[in-house]
Amino acid sequence: MKNIVILISGRGSNMEAIVNACQREGWPARIAAVISNKASASGLQFAAAQGIATAVVDHKAFDSREAFDAELARVIDGYQPDVVVLAGFMRILTEGFVRHYEGRLLNIHPSLLPAFPGLHTHQRAIEAGCKLAGATVHFVTPELDHGPIVLQAAVPVLADDTEDSLSARVLTHEHVIYPQAVRWLVEDLLSVNDGVVRHRQGATQVRWGG
Ligand code: GAR
Question: How far, in Å, from the CA of 174 to the mean position of ligand 1?
Fold first, then answer.
């Protein structure tokens, strides 16, 4: 049984989707803990109600990124994680932290990377006149919102889309591709060569959404 630790900063809807899929599909894994950098993260309540261990490591209590990341890693490692999942975890991580979890640290980003790293992805996609938008699950590397791509979901950008309507459309697909990617990692179905991720059995790594 593998241990999954999920990091959140807020709502935690992706975390919820992963918890539910793990339970429903009987993954050979358990959600060992949900950890937040904010005590107010509403996702913590869902996790606790599921009987999952929760913890808060408040970034404001530390005077450097290094000190925060060191404490965060100490708490995470207490759960002996095989997979660490960033699910709306809105902190920039230090290189040392990322290297410590290399190959077992996943992130979801609400754009078709490598387009639009950073914040306000949907607004930027609309302003750029993009006809496709989406989300990317990737292995985390020290460069922000980069790293080997595991799975992408693409959706159309509609003429009357707002940031809210586009983000809602993308989010429904995040809730499908993120559990899928975590399951693949748990089941050791991913290989990475020269920065390119392949599914060992050739499963499709793209989801087309309406
Ligand atoms: C999601 O849309 C996720 O892709 C995004 O934050 C949202 C979290 O929602 N992540 C990032 O922007 C990371 N750069 P959730 O808390 O409901 O899962």
Answer: 9
